[in-house]
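I am writing to request your help with a piece of structural work I have in hand. What I wish to show you is a protein chain and, alongside it, a tokenised description of its three-dimensional fold. Could you please explain, in whatever detail you think fit, how the structure tokens follow from the sequence? You will find the record immediately after this paragraph.
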Amino acid sequence: MNLLEYFKQYPILAQKAEKVVESDASIYALSQMKDLLENYVPDGIDRRTEYRLSDEKEFIRLHCIEGISVEQAAERMCISRDTAYRIRRRLCAKEVTAVPCVS
């Protein structure tokens, strides 16, 4: 599963976690996503990588979690649509490993 598909599950898991009857699996998967997003930009990396990862993190927040389109995300991030689509392609190329997900 690529990173973009993984984070698109965030709103669904958030709704499931709000329900009282849902299992701990949804809550655990949501906490894993929050941790991954919170630690997406590690400390001690070069500036270019830091900026790239920061843009990816913001795109994930806007497009996947808030659910706005790529074009709207580009506008809110003050970047071109081409740049937003490049970020989207980078996220699609990254695989999520060893992180549980709930369908």
